[in-house]
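Final report, results section. Input specification for complex C-07:
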Amino acid sequence: MSEQLINARDLHKYYSIKSGYLQPSKNLKALAGASFELYAGKTLAVVGESGCGKSTLARLLTMIEQPTSGQLSIDGIDVAITTDKSIKKQLRQSIQMVFQDPFGSLNPRQKIGNIIQEPLIINTDLSTNERHQKVLEMMELVGLRKEHFQRYPHMFSGGQRQRVAIARALILKPKVVVLDEPVSALDVSIQAQVINLLIELQQELGLAYVFISHDLSVVRHIADEILVMYLGKPVEQGPSEVIFNNPKHPYTQALLSATPSTNINTKRQRIKLIGELPSPINPPTGCAFNPRCQHAHKSCKISEPIMETYGESQAACLALDEGRI
Amino acid sequence: MALLEITNLTVEFATATGSLRAVDGINLSVDEREILAIVGESGSGKSVAMLALMGLLPWTAKVSADSMLFDGQDLLGMNDKQRRKIIGKDISMIFQEPMTSLNPCFTVGYQITEVLCQHFGGKRRSYNNRAIELLNQVGIPAAESRLNSYPHQLSGGMCQRVMIAMMIACQPKLLIADEPTTALDVTIQAQILELLIELQKNHGMALVLITHDMAVVAETAERVVVLYAGQQVEQRKAEKLFKNPKHPYSEALLNALPERAQDKLLNAIPGVVPGQMDRPQGCLFSPRCSYAQEVCRQEPPKLKDGILCHFPLSQPKAISVESE
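Structure output:
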């Protein structure tokens, strides 16, 4: 077994929301009880609609925010307990992030070379020459040319900018990279280039990825493990092949059937999901998915399902529990 | 006769560094009650071509075409005033970003009734019932109370539904949807696509779907036009295109999809769409094409049977579709 890099147990993150003067603040449960492990060289995909807590999870993992409760250890060190600043700094270096929108995540007034070397300036005391050398090596690794060093982000296409963002994330030699929808802003052909780059980098450097996406066809291709979330709660998790070939939770099934496919010969029966994600401030009682679920029963509106193991995967569904599906 | 008939449409932009040809001699025809998909990467001119049809391009654009006929009327010879009577009424368009294409300062109800007042005259109030009916049609729950909502109070999917309600308000003959689902989640995407197809069937509209997602095309379209760098490289029935793409670019686009990958690495198309400065001499796709020969790099190909290629593919290059 390879090295365990992230161990999350029952992570919660609540934001308190003021609804008005003199009114008590409410809790927005952005993330309610995510548990998973991540090993070196593996990819964990976090899947769900917008508003399901994927990005909150990314913010917790990168230590931008502290979890409200639950345990998160990165590289064997518990993040919540550690107060030692130097250890925290080291942890931050070992987990980096690539954001969704390559047009928004790069400073338009900085040159590419400066963007990539900024983490080095902050975290190391290398000389200018050494930094340049490192940046040039990294640029070559992600498929950028030397002359790009002096250029500005607006001179690049979306795919190339995403390469810059990846180079910036990798320059500190992290062990884990959190990819927040890294290809959803790109065209199909460019998307394939970036995914190939990510796969090659993973094989070369033994990186672990947390891959956040709502595009299941991409996830199927890149992920080893999958965590499906709905309204802040994990509803199903397990190995990629198992989840795709035999989805257990009605939400996972609906997500899979909603993903368009070019395979015209196999017209699938589409499971229609009615309505949209409910508000996380005022979630439905019982199972959060019950208003949209075709298997919803009386009991689904009353009690909350918990994660149970079914074969190789885990799912949180009362209908499964009671053997109704 | 076709509902929309465009021949040899060319759009050029005057830029500081010379003229940029965004659309290069496109021929399009859309029949009544047909779903046509226009596919291509960003920069392939798919949106610009449709904006040219709508007359929504800025003054820097020079639009020329041999003919541009809609329902027997010549759109080219029309002045702006005459064109405005057709645009929004008989031809309407849905844009990509639902959040930014609605006006944040006005309520949803105002924006829907505005279209009706504009084209049919009369008081705004009198159209309130029609607006509620429209919102119901596009599947917005509690339509009556939604009339007074502002766009920021609605989710992306809801905003897109409002956009669609506005666009079908005048019962157009042709609806152009420019990447209607790109900004949305998969489950919402499926809902919106289903809604568009349902409306297309019920209202007998023609639908032009602009997208870069081949999978969306496969699920919806009857006929497909593939654009590359402003040129039309392939135009065929959807079924045939997916079984046996003739142009190397169409094939490459299909093969780049993760679901068609044979091993861990995807079949990416190397390089990017050529820009204004680096337009190749011969076939525009030749620098990225895996079949390119000397002729391709020297001479631009001619359109033959709807395919712009020196050497159209006859057999699909071992596309093994994963069995599901």
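Residues 186-203 of chain B form the longest helix (18 residues). Residues 317-324 of chain B have pLDDT under 50 and may be disordered. This concludes the modelling results for the funded period.
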